Model the fold of this input.
Amino acid sequence: MSENEMKIIVFLLRNEEYGVNVEQVRSIERMLPITRVPRTPAFVKGVINLRGVVTPVIDLRERFLFEKNEVTDETRIIIVSVQELEVGLVVDAANDVIDLPLREIVAPPELISGVAAKYLSGVAKWEERLLVLLNLEEVLNQEELHALHDADFSYS
Amino acid sequence: MENEAYLALFIEESKEHVQRLNNQLLLLEKNPEDLETIKEIFRSAHTLKGMAASMGFEHLTALTHALENILDALLNQALDVSQEVVDGLLTACDVLEDMISSIEEGHENPHDISGIVAMLEEIATAQPQETLRKSVNIQHADSQRGEGETLYDVRVSLSDDCALKAVRAYMIVQALEEDGYIVEANPPLEAMGGRFQEKDLSFLYRTKQKESEIKNRLNSISEIKAMVVHPHSQSDGTPKKGDKTSPTKTIRVSMERLDHLMNLFEELVIDRGRLEKIALDVEHVELQETVERMSRISSDLQDIVLTMRMVPIEQVFNRFPRMIRSLAKDLGKKVQLTIEGESTELDRTVIDELGDSLVHLLRNSMDHGIELPHIRQQQGKKEHGTISLKAYHSGNHVFIEIKDDGGGVRYDHVSKRAVERGIVTQKVADDMTEQEIAQLLFSPGFSTAEVVSDVSGRGVGLDAVKSKIESLGGAVSLVSKQGEGTHFFIQLPLTLSILSALLVVSDEQIYAIPLSSVIETAFIEHQDIRSIHHKRVMDYRGTIIPLLFLTDILSPSSLQKKIAQRSFVVILKKGASLIGVVVDFFIGQKEIVLKSLGHYLSGVFAISGATILGDGQVALVLDANSLMK
Done:
């Protein structure tokens, strides 16, 4: 890998291809039993036992697109690590690692495939495929988690 | 560099010595005549100097040297223990502490110590020095000789080509002082730092060890050419009763390793649970017996691992006498601090987290509790206020009490302030008992001090203390009588990570409730569930207590389920209040390992963490305290 390339894990969400920097990815897991955590926003699926470590899991499809996800044989949990956070992301499939030339990356448009620009760090064209790169810091923003949390339960 | 390896040890030990200096100086302030205390201080200062010199921290060496000069003068009785002397020495200790912390942070000698050294020199030379030292020392040493102790003459010659004589000399002194006391040294101990060049050393040494043991000890030090050890000729054979007890042997283990051990052990506990389940399922007698045996051994092991992490609360308490002393000076108050139960042991993690809260409560007592001396006199109290700090074990908990004999909580002020701040309405406030009003002090955004002072009331209030202690699984409360003082109670769990829990099922998920908050489990018939003001209650042994449904609490949006004819109830307690919680059914009691939910999900309502069950599934641990609200 040269300095002008970035290794990207490619995953699927509703037939669109997304990417995260491989340096932020700890592992990719098959679907594991999830324990629901009460009184959290719907996209927080719960916690899993990741080899002895209790790890929170969120569903990216519900996070961005507000639609329910169906678990298939292809469903994967991508364990990412951002700053102090270690979180699992439920995605429809994850099966590709690519070396993306940095010059292919451009700033994201305002809204793409229904995902707001602030969650994206860029988009890239790669071998005629469109790749949406996630800004994980923003996706895992905890303030937002608490805000959503409060909104969900303001009536309780 | 070789020094690197010793740096961590150096820092650790110097901190201990500075702490000892602090403690002994405070003792000295109370008993200025006590030569033994001065000696103790001298020894600490001296060891510190030797260590600093051999590590090459020149500023630190210079400062401890100046400190030693004063102590030497005190020991020779050329200088009397006065307030200025103690103040000067304490100030020097503060500087030492700062210097050691900056060494720890990686910058050496950033301090300008010329001012403090000059001050110390001035104190040291304030009175003419006399040299009474030798006779004083030997007399004293003889009278202090403990049971079974003998005086020895120890002579050591270093090899001619020994490059670092100061370091070797220091190591010899250390080796001797480890299990004995150097009564006299030639050349004197003070000369052994820095550019020490002598190669013949002799000591008058008091110890319980045999000759051969002393030799063995010294033999482990390299570059020694020759040594002679024989009993001191003047020693008489009548040993006197001494107060020194032989120290238990200890080694230093880094916290990291202990944490690692703990983590591994937690894994083991989880696997143990799994194994127990498998053994039960396959119905194999031999396997069951083996697993049972293993369970017993691992419980013993659990006790050991947990106690290894326990440290005496002394570590936190130690810094309080100094703090109270300087606060009292700043505030112009007279206060005596009494400490009890400082040897009470607590898990290291709890201790680390606890310090700030205790500081806050003590500052609070100093600032708002204890009155100024003249006001105390007007009220017919002793001029000196008293703050007592007490720690003790009881069951699976450790209790800490902080009690002052100051003005107490002014209930009218508190309820007025609470209404102003919108914490409660006037109507509610009017109906509150004193006890309830006192608890208002723990509400967020509450600070009763009329003036925001430097001492307490800097934005963080008692609510911060409360949430810290609750996050440690503990509780805090206070009792106060106006005019007579305030009494804070803190209850803490002995350990945080492994606990007994009751496993219950609600909404098809397993939850663990710490047994420490469970009173008992029971059944309740549908017709026994009653309703008062639209709230469900039950009759528990003649008392009406609130009844909650776990499903309602955990998923408030879900549809109300039909109440079964017979429900399972867990009776929980928090302090004196009880509550019944309805669950789907009980599974049983289990040892669980408390794990964090992960940083991302911190602060989830009513959940204090998670645990991994025998079958690998994650169960959430309920926080009984927050269910009570």
About this structure: Chain A touches chain B through 28 residues (CB under 8 Å). Residues 150-156 of chain A have pLDDT under 50 and may be disordered. The first strand of chain A starts at residue 5 and ends at 13. The two ends of chain A are 53 Å apart (CA to CA).
